[in-house]
Design goal:
With 302 residues, the protein is an alpha+beta fold. The chain is built from ten helices and nine strands. Helix 1 packs across helix 4, helix 3 packs antiparallel against helix 4 and helix 5 crosses helix 7. The longest helix has 23 residues. Keywords: DNA-binding, Transcription, Transcription regulation.
Length: 302
């Protein structure tokens, strides 16, 4: 990549806002038996100084870290430290505990790919085969330069800018996933065999996008019917055919995942606050469902 100019925190905030806007224009990714959706694509706080760090944590999604400048050291539970710099990518599977700090001043892109439930992949967990992997995807620096040029060279105000950014973002992820399959022993070669019409999968994807964006909001069946322009019976049938679970079960699972994440990352929140922020009508209902899924009440979860 070309040398990046000096950028301010305000510049990076503007870049992050633009990337977030373009996420809605991206298609989902089919990778072997899995469907993935990019839910985060950002620069974090922007420029990291030596010694900046992020403590132990893990993600429910596939995490991709891409340094554009500098050098970042990752500590991964039960594995050796990994150092990544420009031209390299680190892929971290879901539920993999890790932390990182800056060895040399730098800039890093962070991407999160969420697994979209599909009936054909329910028994094929991506976490079982995918290991934390650092590698150098061919051509990735040229693609990243194209993405950065959208911010540094071209106007961000024209009507086509969000779609252009989405195209570059899609290409970055495609190169990473393709290269990961070619350069490691992890090869997700089996394809979904549902035989479902593409329209059915797109409709369910549309519903899932709405649910994921409104976990703490209105997820009544009446609201989902209006979004999908389908009846409750049609939604139920399609959802089970495509994902292997009901729409109600998916909503409950997502709300519990959001609550679990809040418990892990923000200990200052009360159980009641977490319940409401995760879309539950009461702390009692939340506690009951949480214990049912995780085996312990939220007050004792760690």
């Amino acid at each position: 990549m070309k040398t990046l100019p000096r950028l301010s925190a305000a510049d990076f905030q503007c870049f992050n806002d633009a990337l977030h806007q373009s996420l809605d224009g991206m298609d989902d990714f089919r990778w072997g038996p899995w469907w993935l959706r990019c839910i985060e694509f950002h620069f974090g706080k922007g420029f990291y100084r030596v010694g900046d760090q992020f403590g132990w944590h893990m993600h429910k999604e596939v995490q991709i870290e891409i340094p554009l400048r500098g050098r970042f050291r990752f500590a991964i539970k039960n594995r050796r430290n990994v150092i990544v710099g420009p031209g390299q990518v680190l892929v971290i599977p879901p539920d993999c505990k890790h932390r990182w700090w800056t060895d040399a001043p730098g800039i890093m892109l962070g991407l999160s790919l969420a697994l979209i439930p599909r009936a054909g992949s329910l028994d094929n967990s991506i976490s079982r085969g995918l290991k934390p992997t650092a590698f150098s995807p061919p051509g990735i620096e040229l693609t990243l330069q194209g993405l950065m040029d959208e911010f540094l060279v071209y106007s961000q105000k024209d009507d086509f800018a969000p779609k252009r950014r989405a195209s570059w973002m899609f290409l970055v992820i495609t190169q990473v996933l393709s290269s990961l399959s070619e350069t490691t022993s992890f090869r997700p070669t089996s394809e979904p065999t549902s035989g479902l019409p593409f329209r059915s999968e797109r409709l369910v994807s549309k519903i899932i996008r709405y649910i994921d964006a409104n976990v703490d909001g209105d997820l009544t069946m009446e609201r989902i019917e209006s979004i999908a322009v389908l009846s409750a019976r049609q939604i139920h049938r399609l959802f089970v055919e495509v994902t292997g679970k009901t729409c109600h079960a998916y909503i409950m699972n997502r709300r519990l995942e959001v609550a679990q994440s809040k418990l892990q990352t923000d200990p200052s929140l009360s159980i009641k606050e977490i319940a409401f922020a995760s879309g539950f009508a009461s702390a009692a209902h939340f506690s009951s469902k949480f214990k049912e899924k995780f085996g312990v009440p939220p007050s004792k979860y760690s």
